[in-house]
Design a protein that fits this description.
The complex is a heterodimer.
Chain A lengths: L1 H6 L5 H13 L3 H20 L12 H13 L10 H12 L21 H12 L1 H13 L2 H12 L2 H7 L5 H19 L8 H18 L6 H19 L6 H33 L12 H4 L11 E2 L8 E6 L6 E8 L9 E6 L8 E5 L7 H5 L13 E6 L5 E8 L7 E6 L11 E5 L15 E5 L5 E8 L8 E6 L9 E7 L6 E2 L7 H17 L22 E5 L16 E4 L3 H26 L6 H25 L15 H20 L10 H28 L25
Helix pairs in contact in A: 3-6, 3-8, 4-5, 5-6, 6-9, 6-10, 7-8, 7-10, 7-19, 8-19, 9-20, 10-11, 11-13, 12-13, 12-18, 17-18, 17-19, 18-19
Chain B lengths: L1 H12 L2 H8 L8 H24 L3 H4 L7 H4 L16 H15 L12 H12 L11 H12 L21 H25 L4 H13 L1 H7 L5 H19 L8 H20 L3 H19 L7 H33 L12 H5 L5 H5 L10 E7 L6 E8 L14 E6 L7 E5 L20 E6 L6 E4 L1 E4 L12 E6 L16 E6 L4 E8 L8 E6 L9 E8 L6 H10 L11 H14 L14 H5 L5 E5 L6 E4 L3 H26 L7 H22 L1 H4 L10 H23 L7 H27 L6 H7 L13
Antiparallel strand pairs in B: 1-4, 1-12, 2-3, 3-7, 3-11, 4-5, 5-8, 6-7, 8-9, 10-11, 13-14
Helix pairs in contact in B: 2-3, 6-9, 6-10, 7-8, 8-9, 9-10, 9-11, 9-12, 10-24, 11-25, 12-13, 12-14, 13-14, 13-15, 14-15, 14-22, 21-24, 22-24
The chains are: A alpha+beta, B alpha+beta.
EC number (chain B): 2.4.1.109
InterPro entries (chain B): ArnT-like_N, MIR_dom_sf, MIR_motif, PMT-like, PMT_4TMC
Pathway (chain B): Protein modification; protein glycosylation
Chain lengths: 737, 786
């Protein structure tokens, strides 16, 4: 398309109009490849321009860069997103000579000698692939070259898309897979008349692989899985309705899809986790998020290669871990609660470090058994703790019993205080706890590490509980332990982690080694908890979904380094990057959504009311409906679910949805242009068509050029300061650049 | 069924002509069944003819068709024509009597505050006393209770302090609980009539009513001063009216057509005005009406003009009617509650000033224009109520995270009225604090200083907001603030007390004074944090002067009088229009962050509701284990949940079979099943699924609106099974099926009686008796006495 405008200066109107005619007809392979090649060149030019700047950590690069380093160093870490995206980034880094030594401490940190460009280049290439893939997708949906071109242009010239794709982030990778799945789906759809051929199988498998990629980068990849799922159902429905085939034919189709679109993605997804667990074999910052058994597999963790008795028996010294993400150990120390925190007794807390004060002795509630004489006998058999037993926990270092009573807890006043009480293990009836195994029945033996249990206070009936709330200074800011009257509370579960008892044979911890599937599921539980925990804090200004389509506010990627910024000529060298969608395209897209709704209703009503139309016109409308419905559905699936999400949301969450709506704009613009023959005299059609198309593309290009400083770097004074260079671009008050 | 199936298929193979013959009179034997099948067959042929003409030969579309297009009739309700009878009959009457008997039985007991009566009883008292209160749910239900309270002679003087407190002698418990109980009783015949309208047989519809009668959860919820009985009744009645309205499809704009349409949305609007969750059933109504319109479009018998008129009428009914009902309930709310009350300070100063007493009496006679020498309290206008505050006490030298601080005097936002909330407005160039003569009002854009009244230190900001103490170090005071009036146009750009919304922009940094919502640690006495923010355009940077007086000179008393006389706050300006009050209240209700109790003992997840995992303890007797526990009838509950799956399964099979052109059931039964899907299943889904995406603490009673639809569905499934069995092997299978239903009913009755002790809560129970009722270990019935 660009070629056409530039060629026009050559002054050969006949060949140009011929070319445009071919372009409109979309029949010619040569034209197709010319257009495609041109778009490819433009894409590379816009994406690779100033890829190396800023030469410091921008925005979330601080997270994903850090994670890439962890992969390269093989240290275990925890993140709420699945691993594929980060592993790809790590792979880009590894292959281009990044050594994993850079800290990625905070945005603004200079890269200096670090080989960071490889990672940026890898992400950018995946992001750049969006444009040609959008082109192909729309081509498959419409078989109209102009529609594909307009669609690709709307993504190509979107400043926000360029910005988001130029950095070490998960988003370019996620969008690559989403777009890949969409492209595969549309390719596959067009193979529907030759089922079970090689290309039919391969496009379906391609779609399945892309789905696996999408969902294993971020969980929002699920939306594209739903999209493909819905279309597969529709597909099967159509096949079922074809009475010329027996039902077994439908079953065959169904099984093929189950294989490629369910089984294959599942296997690939799990394989990603397999690689993740295999690569991250060393202890690291993520250990504490996982259970004791999991930790025992990490080199360098204190549980690695440990050995201890399996059963918990009376007389053993144990540590108790609160069974939740980053749960800490039950702890006590010889300091008392201050008078304002209830009865002045010894503090009980949870503490995340391993420490002698975490050790408790398990005793029968009534007697100090077994006595030393008994233990000394050769045929001594230790008695072990069973679910439902009444027990007493004595703090080994201070010989005080775990105790609770009807006094409010220090921080959470609805709960009861838990303290250390008694002298040398002799306390009162408030020291008695009933141990209740979860997923087990009364009388079941309790094992170390694997079994979860509750400790119910015998007298009050509340459950030993801990959470993230910290005690004030007097409690050394350790976490509060309470007795919760709601015994079903989520954090009232504990497990024994260490178990010292020399009367029982030690077994190697290796037997608790979780299988891959157990690790896989545990990682998911932890991830879901982590995601649910990403709540905005009170008073924090967060991005809301309604703001996104109207381009209400962008996102700073780089603010230079405000501390080091000094007045004077230095200022000009600071580069600021502001990710914000091209408002012309974004607002235009909103208009296209409304326009499509009107056209859809209009077409439905006119056909339902029996308006006479040519067969060609009906086909044209049916094609529009097919393509646009599909893209609208994709957009809605990638946008509306965010309204229901409680977690913290960001502006860049909208970009996958934006891809689909940009593609729809291409289809719709082409439809409108092809409707011209009805409005213009026939000999003017070609000229008008060209004029409109050129104007449309020029607007896109010019607006991209206008907002390009946001993408490639702004300098000079900030907003509202004198001499701000971008005042003419501040079309909305809410924009911050 | 299998027999019938093959039978049908065989007939399908007959030529159309033969089939037509079968119904055009050649049938001499009186085999009704055969005739029926023949009619179906004809319908089908007609349909397939139309369908084929639709898809293959579109040109035939434009040809005028003299005969009635059968395409439209497929979407019409099963019975096709008008059902003259609204379905209220002896069975309905019996249900009503049964409902009244169970609901009114010992209605006055327990004579103590049960569960949310705590709130609704209190609100009724406020209505009786015309005192303003704030609640995040709409008022209609509370007004109905208040009406009962009014007629029962309740004087509103009872302090609802906590759940379980005894009602005093003379408190009309019975009267207040009567209205919900009656509504809960009417729910049974209403549900019965709704099913009858949907074409369900009389025994099955009666069964639905009986199941609702036997459900302990519905019963508990109907017996106390709660909102759900109204919500449920209005929802069911609304849907009933709309189904009735659908029967008049062929007679648009006739009196019943208009009447039922309007009545339907009046009820649904009323449901929404009781609780916002009524919106979900309103949505169901809108979907029904819109979908019917959509299917009307291809109907060529309807002219385009008629279509437009229908569109207008339906849109008006969907949008305007509920809005009118909703608006009316708020009109009553705001007119009745004209006195200041307990929850005033949730609202803006202007709103409070419009209420009798309270703030209005304080600010009466206070001067209007703020200027140099004005003493004001500055209120955080939107969101949480608090006033700009300072006190002796400085920021710690180092914060917990080791950041250093300015060590200046603390400034915070304080939620209570306090002498330390007073500030004096001062122009930077005048040192005397007294008001000048002539008086200098502060205008939009003026630069001022704010001097804290009790400590005489000026509001200052270096990153953190403080009152400046001159330590004689290199940190100079930065205590100039620019006044930006948001609504300056209304007041001629002069800062007025109460009404002007002000942003204080720090000079020269350009940051705005902001309330952050965070609590300061202990050193700040847990007051709320105030900072300066670069982002100026946000709600939390808006302040307004609330209380206001002038700093007056000792001597010139005459001047004082002049000023007080001239600048009197005109009372009329404090009168907000009803519309302004309505919109403010709506916004407040919309954005009111209810402090939700996380991890409440009896909270439950939407997924738990289907299996009746947890109940809610409503009340426990202080002397015994007698208690009211909100828990459904397990026999009814689980069957209701299962019936939803059964419907989906049955319809799934039919759909797949129909796709292969196997028609297993008569066409009118099929249409009926489709209608049930549109109304009952969709009603359930709309009332249930949204709870998954709302992030809030929920209880089992949030499920009740959806649950009603689930119970209706279980009766519909029974109905359908009997229709199916009637077509197989002469129908004798219906006998064992009936026995099965009876067995199920017996189980329901048994469970009902078994749990009625914790439903009525009048029987003292022993600990083992209570434990015997905990059928699932997640049912936490309370045992606190042996």
């Amino acid at each position: 398309m660009k070629a056409k405008t530039t060629k026009s200066s050559d002054g050969d109107p006949v060949s140009i109009s011929k070319w445009i005619h071919k372009f409109r007809q979309s029949k010619d392979d040569h034209t197709w490849w010319t257009t495609f090649g041109l778009i490819l060149c433009l894409t590379m030019a816009t994406r690779l321009y100033r890829l190396d700047s800023p030469d410091h950590v921008a925005w979330d690069e601080t997270h994903f860069g850090k994670m890439a380093s962890w992969y390269i160093n093989r240290t275990f870490f925890f993140d709420v997103h699945p691993p594929t995206g980060k592993m790809l980034i790590a792979a880009f880094g590894y292959l281009t000579g990044y050594d994993g030594k850079f800290e990625f401490e905070k945005p603004g940190q200079k890269f200096d000698e670090t080989h960071y460009l490889g990672m940026r280049f890898g992400c950018t290439m995946m992001g750049a692939a969006l444009v040609p893939m959008a082109f192909i997708t729309v081509w498959e949906l419409t078989h109209a070259l102009p529609a594909a071109t307009f669609a690709a242009a709307a993504i190509l010239f979107d400043n926000g898309m360029v910005t988001l794709n130029q950095y070490i982030l998960l988003d370019p990778i996620l969008m690559f897979f989403i777009m890949g799945a969409a492209m595969g789906q549309s390719k596959f759809y067009n193979q529907r008349h030759n089922p079970f051929t090689v290309s039919w199988w391969s496009w379906m498998a391609f779609t399945g692989a892309m789905l696996a990629g999408a969902i294993s980068v971020k969980f929002v990849g699920l939306f594209v899985v739903v999209l493909v799922g819905l279309y597969t159902i529709k597909d099967i429905w159509d096949i079922l309705g074809d009475l010329s085939y027996p039902i077994s034919y439908t079953v065959k189709h169904f099984l093929a899809r189950a294989l490629c679109l369910i089984l294959l993605p599942t296997v690939l997804y799990m394989f990603a986790y397999y690689v993740h667990f295999t690569v991250l074999s060393k202890s690291g910052p993520g250990d504490g998020h996982f259970g004791s058994a999991f930790q025992s597999q990490l080199e360098g963790n204190s549980l690695h290669n440990a050995s201890m008795p399996r059963e918990i028996c009376y007389g053993a010294g144990v540590t108790l871990k609160n069974h939740r993400t980053a749960g800490a150990y039950l702890h006590s120390h010889p300091h008392l609660y201050p008078p304002e925190a209830g009865p002045v007794q010894q503090q009980v807390t949870t503490y995340s470090h391993k420490d002698y004060n975490n050790i408790w002795l398990v005793k029968r509630y009534d007697v100090d058994m077994p006595s030393e004489e008994e233990e000394a006998q050769p045929d001594f058999k230790p008695e072990c703790v069973k679910s439902g037993d009444l027990i007493r926990l004595e703090h080994e270092a201070t010989s005080r019993n775990l105790h609770s009573h009807r006094h409010p807890a220090p921080v959470t006043k609805r709960h009861f205080q838990v303290s250390g009480y008694g002298e040398n293990g002799t306390g009162d009836s408030n020291d008695v706890w009933r141990i209740e195994l979860v997923d087990g029945k009364e009388g079941d033996q309790i094992n170390v590490v694997t079994d979860r249990f509750r400790l119910i206070h015998y007298m009050v009936g509340c459950a030993l509980f801990s959470h993230n709330k910290q005690l004030p200074k007097w409690g050394y800011e350790q976490q509060e332990v309470t007795c919760n009257p709601n015994t079903r509370a989520e954090f009232a579960l504990w497990n024994f982690e260490e178990n010292y008892y020399d009367k029982l044979p030690n077994v190697s911890f290796a037997i608790y080694q979780p299988s891959f599937l157990e690790k896989f599921f545990e990682a998911h539980m932890v991830q879901f908890q982590g995601n649910a925990g990403l709540k905005p804090k009170e008073g924090e200004v967060t991005s809301r979904p309604w703001q996104w389509p109207i381009d209400y506010q962008g996102q700073w990627f780089s603010i230079g380094d405000p501390d080091k910024r000094e007045p004077g000529p230095h200022k000009d060298h600071e580069i600021r990057i502001y990710m914000m969608g091209n408002p012309v395209i974004w607002w235009g897209n909103l208009g296209f959504i409304a326009l499509y709704a009107v056209i859809y209703v209009w077409n439905f009503v006119s056909s339902a009311r029996g308006v006479r139309e040519s067969a060609q016109e009906r086909v044209r409308k049916a094609n529009l409906t097919y393509a646009c419905n599909w893209l609208m559905l994709a957009w809605a699936l990638h946008y509306f679910p965010f309204y229901g999400m409680g977690r913290i949301l960001y502006y860049h969450h909208y970009f996958p949805a934006q891809l689909f709506i940009s593609m729809m704009s291409g289809v719709l613009v082409n439809y409108m242009l092809e409707s011209l023959p009805r409005a213009v005299p026939s000999f003017r059609v070609d000229q008008t068509w060209t004029a409109f198309a050129v104007v449309y593309l020029s607007i896109l290009t010019y607006s991209f050029y206008l907002f390009a400083p946001l993408t490639y770097g702004m300098s000079g004074p900030e907003k509202k300061e004198p001499g701000h260079r971008y005042d003419h671009l501040l079309w909305m008050d809410s924009w911050e650049f | 069924m299998a027999v019938e199936d093959s039978d049908l298929r065989q007939r399908k193979k007959k030529s159309p002509k033969k089939a037509t013959d079968a119904i055009t009179g050649q049938v001499v034997d009186d085999d009704e069944d055969l005739v029926k099948t023949g009619i179906e067959k004809l319908k089908k042929i007609k349909k397939s003819l139309v369908a084929s003409s639709d898809s293959d030969e579109p040109d035939t579309k434009s040809k005028p068709k003299p005969s009635r297009s059968a395409a439209a009739s497929s979407s019409a309700p099963a019975s096709g024509g008008v059902q003259p009878h609204h379905g209220f009959d002896g069975v309905a009457l019996l249900l009503l009597v049964g409902g009244l008997l169970t609901r009114l039985h010992q209605l006055g007991l327990p004579r103590a505050i049960v569960f949310d009566e705590l709130h609704f009883g209190k609100f009724a008292g406020y209505y009786v006393n015309n005192m303003f209160f704030f609640d995040s749910q709409p008022p209609l239900g509370k007004q109905l209770l208040a009406l009962a309270a009014h007629f029962a002679g309740f004087d509103g003087n009872f302090n609802f302090d906590r759940i379980g407190s005894e009602y005093p002698e003379g408190f009309p418990v019975y009267a207040l609980r009567l209205l919900p109980a009656v509504a809960g009783s009417l729910l049974l015949p209403a549900s019965y009539c709704l099913l009858r309208q949907l074409g369900v047989s009389r025994p099955a519809a009666g069964l639905a009513g009986l199941l609702l009668l036997l459900d302990n959860a519905v019963l508990v919820q109907s017996r106390f001063m709660l909102m759900e009985p109204f919500l449920l009744l209005f929802s069911v009645l609304g849907v009933f009216c709309l189904v009735r309205f659908r029967h008049y499809r062929e007679r648009p704009f006739s009196l019943p057509w208009l009447g039922w349409l309007t009545a339907g949305f009046v009820f649904l609007g009323a449901a929404t005005s009781v609780r916002y969750s009524g919106l979900l059933t309103l949505l169901l109504g809108a979907v029904i009406v819109c979908r019917d319109f959509w299917t009307l479009i291809p109907d060529r018998r309807v002219t385009s003009g008629q279509l437009l008129a229908q569109l207008a009428a339906r849109a008006l009914a969907v949008l305007a009617v509920p809005l009118l009902v909703y608006g009316a309930s708020f009109y009553a709310h705001l007119t009745v509650l004209h006195k200041a009350g307990a929850h005033d300070n949730v609202m803006t100063s202007a709103f409070q000033a419009s209420l009798d007493g309270g703030l209005a009496s304080i600010i009466q006679n206070q001067p209007l224009e703020v200027g140099h020498g004005s003493q004001v309290t500055l209120r955080h206008t939107l969101g949480r109520t608090c006033w700009l505050h300072s006190h002796e006490g400085v920021y710690p030298v180092k914060y917990d995270d080791d950041r250093g601080s300015s060590h200046q005097q603390q400034v915070s936002c304080y939620s209570y009225k306090d002498v330390n909330n007073w500030w004096i407005v001062k122009q930077p160039d005048i040192d005397d604090m007294r008001v000048t003569s002539p008086f200098k009002p502060v205008k939009h854009g003026d630069i001022i200083q704010l001097v804290h009244g009790m400590t005489s230190r000026a509001l200052n900001s270096h990153d953190e907001v403080s009152c400046y103490i001159d330590y004689n170090i290199s940190m100079p005071a930065q205590n100039l603030w620019k006044v930006e009036l948001l609504n300056g146009k209304d007041t001629g750009n002069v800062w007025h007390a109460i009404v002007s919304q002000v942003r204080l922009i720090h000079q020269p940094s350009g940051t705005a004074l902001k309330f952050t919502g965070q609590q300061l640690p202990d050193w700040g006495h847990n007051q709320l944090e105030v900072t300066c923010d670069k982002v100026v355009q946000q709600d939390d940077t808006i302040w307004n002067a609330e209380e206001h007086r002038y700093t007056l000179a000792e001597g010139s008393e005459k001047q004082q009088e002049d000023m007080a006389g001239a600048e009197m706050l005109p009372l009329s300006s404090a009168r907000l229009s009803l519309w302004a009050k309505f919109t403010e209240l709506q916004l407040k209700m919309l954005f009111n962050n209810q402090e939700t109790v996380q991890g409440h003992m009896y909270a439950s997840d939407p997924l738990d509701w289907l299996s009746l995992k947890r109940g809610v303890a409503y009340w426990i007797s202080p002397d015994s284990n007698a208690q009211v526990h909100f828990l459904g009838n397990a026999a009814v509950w689980l069957a209701a949940s299962a019936s939803l799956a059964a419907y989906a399964g049955i319809m799934g099979i039919y759909l797949l079979r129909r796709r292969r052109e196997c028609y297993d059931i008569p066409e009118d039964e099929w249409d009926k099943m489709c209608d049930l899907g549109l109304i009952v299943l969709l009603g359930f889904a709309l009332n249930y699924l949204p709870y998954f995406i709302i992030d809030h603490t929920f209880f089992l009673h949030h499920y009740l609106p959806a649950y009603i639809f689930a119970v209706l569905m279980s009766a519909c499934i029974v109905d359908h099974v009997f229709v199916l069995l009637g077509r197989v092997a002469g129908g004798w299978l219906r006998l064992p099926a009936a026995a099965g239903v009876l067995l199920w009913l017996a189980a329901a009755v048994y469970t009902f009686i078994r749990f009625s002790v914790v439903t009525y809560g009048t029987t003292p129970l022993s600990a083992p008796e209570v434990q015997a009722l905990a059928w699932r270990d997640t049912w936490d019935l309370i045992v606190h006495k042996p």
